[in-house]
Specification:
The protein has 15 helices and 18 strands. It has about 475 residues and is α/β, with parallel strands linked by helices. The chain has two domains: about 170 residues, Rossmann fold; about 290 residues, L-fucose Isomerase, Chain A, domain 2, CATH 3.40.275. The strands form three sheets. It has a six-stranded antiparallel beta barrel with strand order 10-11-16-15-14-17, surrounded by four helices. Strands 2-1-3-4-5 form a five-stranded parallel sheet, with helices on both faces. Strands 7-6-8-9 form a four-stranded parallel sheet.
Amino acid sequence: MKATKLAVIIGNRDFFPDKLVTEARQDIQAVFAEMGIDAVVLAEEDTKLGGVETWEDAKKCAALFKAHADEIDGILVLLPNFGDEKGVADTVKLSGLHVPILVQAYPDDLSQFNIERRRDSFCGKVSACNNLRQYGYPFSLTELHTVAPTSDSFKADLKKFVGVCRVVNGLKNARLGAIGTRPNAFITVRYSEKLLQASGTHVCTVDLSEILGAANKLADDDPKVKAKLDEVNAYVPTGGVPSPALVKMAKLGIVLDDWTAANEVDATAFQCWDAIQQHYGINACALMSMMGNKLMPSACEVDVAGAAAMYALQLASGTPSALVDWNNNYADDPDKCVLFHCGNWPKSFYGEDVQMAYADVLATTLGQKNTYGALAGRAPSGPVSFARISTDDVSGKIRTYVADGMMTDDPLKTFGSRAVVDVPGLQSLLRYVCKNGFEHHVAMNASHSAAVLAEAFETYLGWDVYWHRE
């Protein structure tokens, strides 16, 4: 993922010590260098020490931001002293930027509570936030009202903010691919293209017959087919999978790669049953897993909103996401459950025992020979985040929920792609899911990213959010 670039506004008020502005610049430069963040900030000679205070300062700072508008992911407001609240808001307005904003304020040191070092940033932050709200700009806050940029607390705030920027900017410009139509029985994955589009997320569609038709036209000895076949065989162990099925996967993989590249899609939702098994003779799970492992999430059953949630989690963490079913209770433990799907999770979700096989459940009706291509394996213990995006046509809103938990090593003897998770207060979360008519699918990511998504969804995208915390 590309390096984050933040526009930095250093607020100033002239009857406070100028050296506080200089120190703030030095502090944030050191923190940005440590965290790999690029800055767009006034030079010290552009205004008094590069701070923003007057109308003229705001115009200069805004002009700089405009010149780099296509590169800027977010805005950081630094208040080494009270700052000029109007100067901050004017800069944002004149810049024309509509990106996430983080407001920071320095703490005062009681041992230096004198005219030479007193900051009053505590109060200035309240005024800056007031002005931003008056101007109509949503913004984020640090965990502590005042916090030094060099502290671990602020670095955690900044890391979260960078994730928020990626999620907001990513979803506002996302292109999702709907490959085929949803299975007839799965009205649970209905969604509104128009509501997604209103938030900036565009959906590209293609009929599955076009994809399968193009795959069938490829010759077995085509060099591209051989290259893709090598990639499939190198991805996970394929012993026991018939060679004709692997060749079909290679052909389908080429067509999917070409279509996603031509349409510049960021994530896909695929018609994974049962037309592909009936008329092409494989499961697409392994190919979907391969795309997800390359940071192009692919959701089952044309669950486009689920693909959006997968992409959001990926943007927050920088790691692959998977789509799962809330599937089974785990004995009588109310905070644990079993997650399951046929086998399209990115291989980063599996332990060393992952392998390609046929889809056990689908094979009961479609036959083993038509369902090769699913991955089977167990997710190891570690952090996990959940997210669901759902378009509510009746209310005209996008509704979401997010939660964090842990994947566990609890014993589990079954087939397919599976995991045991522990979510504090799981019964409360599941009650919310059911009472509010959410889908049985949920996106998961091997991280703790719920806080990032909650901030991005609610503050900047204006979506309804339930953040499960117990």
